[in-house]
Write a structure and sequence with these properties.
Blueprint (H helix, E strand, L loop, with lengths): L1 H26 L5 H20 L7
Protein name: Membrane protein
Keywords: Membrane, Transmembrane, Transmembrane helix
């Protein structure tokens, strides 16, 4: 009976890990992909614009 209690936590963690991976794969793409891509593009564009702004006081 000790082997059951020794194997139970790794088996439960393996099942949970597989569930997380499956959920991540299923959530890729779909209807929200365009909105997510647009949001990321907007953030990257604003960060790039802020990085390229000339410094006003020669910092």
């Amino acid at each position: 009976m000790d082997y059951v209690s020794a194997l139970l936590p790794p088996v439960v963690m393996a099942i949970a890990f597989v569930g997380v991976i499956v959920t991540m794969i299923k959530s890729q793409g779909g209807a929200n992909k365009a909105k997510e891509d647009a949001a990321v593009d907007a953030v990257l564009q604003s960060a790039e614009a802020a990085r390229q702004e000339p410094k006003a006081h020669g910092a």
